What does this fold into?
Amino acid sequence: MTTGSKAPRRLTILGSTGSIGQNTLDVIAQLGGREAFDIAAITGHDNIDLLASQARACGAALAVTANEDRYQALKEALAGTGIAAAAGRNALIEAASIPSDWVMAAIVGTAGLAPTLEAARRGADIALANKECLVSAGDLFVRAVSEGGGRLIPVDSEHSAIFQALEDDQQHAVERIILTASGGPFRTWSREEMANVTAATARAHPNWSMGLKISIGSASMFNKALEMIEAKHLFNVGPEQIEVVVHPQSVVHSMVGYTDGSVLAQLGCPDMRTAIGYALTYPSRTKLNVDRLDFAKLARLDFEAPDEVRFPALRLARTALERGGLQGAVMNAAEEIAFQAFVDERIGFLEMADIAEAVMDEMIGIGSAETMDAVFAADDEARRYATVFVKQREKAA
Ligand code: NAD
Ligand code: MG
It folds into this structure.
């Protein structure tokens, strides 16, 4: 018996309304849209109009808002479409549990951990943009994906680059991985100049257009700190094998150095759709309508050493890597609280790292991550400490 046309691949997009989520839907549309893909569920938070219009455009079976207060608004926006609506944290986990072949994990922050874990456990291929899953839950998360039987495909541009530059069966010959960092908008600024910046200035990234959290994280280099820990878990390398180099043009997305002295890099324009497309079609490559590099126009690529004094987040990542265990979860949770306090203008830009460091030191004896409950408990405790430290600084100011 001959089969007719192939069944469309079934996809889920966690965080469809964000920067990565919107780029993912663009890639899906470029690669055939509803003809080629069946969208099981999409999720968002506050932007109900966008979530509903995305659901209609891509033909999702279910749309979920994480914000329970917006359930009625979502239901009304989808009335008569046949698209189911749901709301709340449990609804996110249920959406992730619906069978699909491939899940884009693009919720920002630790909020993405529980739903992504659910998708991993049921064996979906996980296209991982949410680096916080790996920073917090590390090996537990990697194990959940491999026990579920799915593949873990990095979407973060640096990790996608490394994934592409890693040669099959050559892990033994990997000497180092080199993460590139743009340096963000304050690459050349002194600490004194950075002390009084606002979130509006800090979020203006020179090369990439991204969500608020990662944009501020690029300015403080906290994003690179998370990426160092993400790299350890994805590529099973020791802390001493992870290097960071500042590369202001964001063209070399990262590199792998081998024991024979060779360095393999992946290059491209700063556009997340290349990494998203690769994660969707891996191990094949596809045709995407993105800008092409023009080397003559580029003329030069610059590299410089990172400055851990001006950007202490990099030093904190090394500390978390050396201490191991749940220190990644602690660093990440403390920084999420400090980031929100900075955005709310309750603390200054430089105080974000101070608070993360103080919480990491406070919880130095935290131990290793044996269970997911231990990860969530460490996350909670770190948030409590960070909240106290934010309040102390507010009072002192
Ligand atoms: P974003 O802020 O633009 O979007 C975040 C998404 O998460 C939105 O859909 C939002 O509705 C949802 N969300 C927010 N709070 C939530 C909550 N409490 N519960 C459930 N959902 C919630 O973020 P982004 O820039 O698209 O980044 C998403 C993830 O991808 C982050 O982990 C980020 O570090 C990573 N990443 C982003 C980029 C990029 O270019 N934007 C690059 C590499 C990695
Ligand atoms: Mg990145």
